[in-house]
Design brief:
heterodimer, A: 11 strands, B: mainly beta, 0% helix
């Protein structure tokens, strides 16, 4: 069974631009969660999607948004990028919710200059 | 507020035993996860505790005390490949995982 895939793996953007990251969950998994990881900060929860609906949201500004498609693939968008948005963005999928074991993708390393 | 406390870094010797502690304060509680993350890689699931007590899984065991807001991960017969960060993540009343910053474990020969 293929694992969670994320594209692109690396991205360099400049301040003010916007970016879209993509995540394909494990086949059969309906829950997709997004996290931001920075050194020393641990994983910061962005949002969780289930059956195309946002079920949970973390404490991030409205510049961060996401969506999920009918095939459970998910995208995350960050508008008006700031230097502080430089981080590893991880996507995780699980069968039904975050109360199940989550399988993480390799992440997208975003650098904002 | 919600808070997770884990040691930032620990060092242990190959073949030894190490215990990584985690204390937490969350709004409600629906279990606690431990994940392992090697440098440059994604986290992988280790254990899930929802009831008090010890759960053993091979060389790894995880303990939970809900009344004390406390958990630990016990690693036995340490191997060099156990060098990684270990993330404690309790789940709050909204079934949202609250992640600690992780404990970086360094194994020395």
């Amino acid at each position: 069974k293929a694992g969670v895939t994320q594209t692109p793996r690396y991205l360099i953007k400049t301040r003010g631009q916007q970016v879209t990251l993509s995540c394909s969950p494990i086949s059969g998994h309906r829950s997709v969660s997004w996290y931001q990881q920075t050194p020393g900060q641990g994983l910061q929860f962005l949002f969780e999607y289930f059956s195309e609906t946002q079920r949970n949201k973390g404490n991030f500004p409205g510049r961060f948004s996401g969506r999920q498609f009918s095939n459970s693939r998910s995208e995350m968008n960050v508008s008006t990028l700031e230097l502080g948005d430089s981080a590893l963005y991880l996507c995780a999928s699980s069968l039904a919710s975050t109360s199940y074991e989550q399988y993480f993708g390799p992440g997208t390393r975003l650098t904002v200059t | 507020g919600q808070n997770i406390d884990q040691p930032t870094e620990m060092t242990a010797t190959e073949g030894a035993i190490v215990q990584i502690n985690c204390t937490y304060q969350t709004s409600g509680f629906n279990g606690l996860f431990w994940y392992q993350q090697h440098a440059g890689e994604a986290p992988t699931f280790l254990s899930y505790n929802v009831l008090d007590g010890l759960e053993e899984k091979g060389r790894f065991s995880s303990f939970l005390s809900r009344s004390k807001g406390y958990s630990y991960l016990l690693l036995k017969e340490l191997q060099m490949k156990d060098s990684a960060s270990y993330l404690c993540a309790p789940m709050d009343s909204n079934y949202q995982l609250i992640w600690g910053a992780g404990t970086k474990l360094i194994i020395k020969p």
